[in-house]
Q: What sequence folds into this?
């Protein structure tokens, strides 16, 4: 029996990699990567290709949304805006709890990604779009909330052909980072190929929001993070 195709939005980071491992259990994988002018664009693309190779993905697509860099408004795409830093190892609480949206939020980015994925899904006949969004233990991005994906599923239903049946799947949405690490380890996800750092492309900085959440997740899961980090002072 031929498996149905599923598109996996694969940034190259840990969450999307674990999401791919979950999708791999029941679907034929089609990996989608989007460059949008982020600081570590080349490094993330490398991880995407290495993870796609690991899973022997039959289909892969890499596209560019340079207009998000031109629009700006995020420290990930505008080098004049500093990337916030923190220390995940000096507190027992989330290092990034805040009532404001962090500067690393790329305005409405996930809507752009999902639109591309939906277009591709219609063409290749994919029934699912997997995205590794996390609401419970993330930086508080508004386009990572479960209600956003519920609404976007309605948009897909209303804006595609009558016979199209495509659903966004968010298997990590209510997991903590430590639970994502454990799930990835359980499924044999290639976490050593992933890249999460917002600033560096050789050795992860260990202090940006993404590194902080990642390190905290590995620490709480009792698992050693397999990627290289800058030495701690």
A:
């Amino acid at each position: 029996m031929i498996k149905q195709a599923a598109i996996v939005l694969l940034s190259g980071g840990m969450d999307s990699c674990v999401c791919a491992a979950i999708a791999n259990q029941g679907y034929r994988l089609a990996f989608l990567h989007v460059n949008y002018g982020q600081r570590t664009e080349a490094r993330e693309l490398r991880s995407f290709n290495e993870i796609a190779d690991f899973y022997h993905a039959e289909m892969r697509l890499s596209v560019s949304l340079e207009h998000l860099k031109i629009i700006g408004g995020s420290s990930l795409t505008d080098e004049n805006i500093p990337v916030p830093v923190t220390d995940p190892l000096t507190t027992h609480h989330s290092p990034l709890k805040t009532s404001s949206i962090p500067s690393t939020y790329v305005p409405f980015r996930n809507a752009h990604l999902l639109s591309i994925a939906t277009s591709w899904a219609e063409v290749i006949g994919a029934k699912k779009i997997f995205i590794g969004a996390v609401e419970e233990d993330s930086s508080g991005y508004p386009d990572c909330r479960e209600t956003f994906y519920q609404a976007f599923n309605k948009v897909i239903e209303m804006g595609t052909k009558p016979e199209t049946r495509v659903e966004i799947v968010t298997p990590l949405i209510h997991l903590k980072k430590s639970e994502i690490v454990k799930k990835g380890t359980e499924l044999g996800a290639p976490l050593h190929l992933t890249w999460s750092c917002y600033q560096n492309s050789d050795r992860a900085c260990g202090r940006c929001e993404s590194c902080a959440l990642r390190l905290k997740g590995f620490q709480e899961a009792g698992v050693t993070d397999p990627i290289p980090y800058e030495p701690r002072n």
